[in-house]
Amino acid sequence: CDCLVLKLELIGEKSCKRWHRDFWCARAIVTYNTAGTLYTGDENVNFWELEHKGTNERIIRDNSEIHSAGVGNILFIKGMKYPDPVKGLIHRSPEAQYHDSGLVRNRLVLKVDVPEPEAWQEEDCDCCP
Question: Looking at the domain assignment, is residue 126 inside a domain?
Answer without folding.
Answer: no
